[in-house]
Amino acid sequence: MRDPNVPDFVYDYVNLASPLMGAQAVLASDEFFAAKERVLQDEPAVFKPDVFDDNGKWMDGWETRRRRNGGNDWLLIRLGVPGVVKGVDIDTSHFTGNYPPAAQIEAIFSEETPDPNGRWRPLVRTTALNPSSHHYVPVGDLDPVNWLKLSIYPDGGVARLRVYGVPNRDWTDEERRGEIELSAAKHGGRIIAYNDAHYGNVMALLSEGRGRTMGDGWETRRRREPGNDWIIVALAAPGVVDRIELDTARFKGNFPDSCSIQAARVEQGAQQSLITQSMFWPELLAPQKLEADAIHGFGAEAIARLGPISHVRLNIFPDGGVSRLRLFGKLA
Predict the structure, then answer these.
(1) Distance between terminal CA atoms of the chain?
(2) What are the tens digits of pLDDT across the range 253-273?
(3) Which residues are 210's β-sheet partners?
(4) 122 preceded by cis ω (within 30°)?
(5) Angstrom distance (rounded) from CA 141 to CA 257
(6) Who has the most CB within 10 Å: 98, 136, 254, 300?
(7) Mind giving me the DSSP string for 229-262?
(8) What's the sign of the alpha-carbon dihedral 300, 301, 302, 307?
(9) Would the pLDDT of 1 be above 70?
(10) Contact 205, 259 (CB under 8 A)
(11) What's the pLDDT score for residue 4?
(12) Mean pLDDT in residue range 50-61
């Protein structure tokens, strides 16, 4: 269910600044009270009233010391996958007497670490901030970027920065000829929609490695009505799928009984449009039984020859948890 107070770009695009996509907080003018890396974490910010460290109150975000010599603080972020930004959320959750009164975001495309004092182009012009609030700002810039500069005026703390947009990756000749993990977040794969994600971290479904805990994956609530649960994934680029891996790592008493995958090549559209279309996509993988805490591999013999596809819909029956979904193949 969409929150009417949240703009469409939050639902229709991927967070380019997610660590799951390789984004990194590289350099900050200051991070005395709270480390710069926290501002990119996928989990919502939390407040721990009784937790302090050597420098003072522990805060879940990036927080600088009180500035006494003029100027302002800034943070450089490198995106793991370049992209065209459609909107941002500057989140000051739990920062009340220590939030910045204003912030600005600039951007650049550079193969090397850019000079913080060099030439940047405005992405989000100076915007007034409020305590403990989400600040959603649409972006109309059409050029791909891979570096962001978040400036706060003059100092203070930001809990999370979300940067929603469309991945824009240049593939090498070697990648075009060989096998690619088409669904991987690090390549630009992204989750478009799902009917439920009550537990865990749904974005981990497309991340690297096996799930470390039961919270490191996509898990739905216990279904008490007819039907099944599902999730829609946009591949990093259209391609022909040769093999599929579905991992139920750590899911033992709550893994799905079975799964199937539908797929199609479609243009990126609004979330609701894709949800409706996906109900009628042909099967890429017919229903398959699943096991607890196991990697399930499906080769060419189990995969329908649909040609190049761009989106898949994973159906699980009736509910449960999946740690990772990986689709391998060749770029179209």
Answers:
(1) 34
(2) 999 999 999 999 998 666 778
(3) none
(4) no
(5) 45
(6) 98
(7) EEEEEEEEEEEEEEEEEEE-TT-SSS--SEEEEE
(8) positive
(9) no
(10) no
(11) 86
(12) 95
C-alpha–C-alpha distance, residues 160 and 148, integer Å:
14
**Two domains, one topology: 8-167 and 173-331:** yes
Q: pLDDT tens across 213-238, in order?
A: 999 999 999 999 999 999 999 999 99
Cross-strand partners of 326 = 245
Tell me the two tokens of residue 145: 């970027």
Rounded to whole angstroms, what are the CA distances from 184 to 139, 191, 193, 306?
26, 10, 16, 20
User: Does the 8-167 domain belong in CATH 3.40.630.30?
Assistant: no
Backbone angles phi, psi at 300, to 5 degrees: -60, -30
Domain spans, the chain: 8-167, 173-331
Return d(Cα 269, Cα 188) in angstroms, integer: 16
**The CATH number of 173-331 is which of 3.10.180.10, 2.60.120.260, 3.60.10.10, 1.10.599.10?**
2.60.120.260
Q: CA 207: distance to chain centroid?
A: 10
Report which residue type is found at 264: A
Q: Which residue has the higher pLDDT, 227 or 14?
A: 227
- Evaluate whether 141 touches 177 at the Cβ level (below 8 Å): no
Q: Would you state the pLDDT for residue 13?
A: 84
Pick the closest to residue 225 from 250, 251, 196 (CA basis): 196
- 62 membership: H or E segment, kind and range: strand 62-63
Mean of pLDDT values over 68-87: 96
Query: Which DSSP string corresponds to 259-282?
Result: EEEEEE------HHHHHHHHTTPP
Type of residue found at 275? I
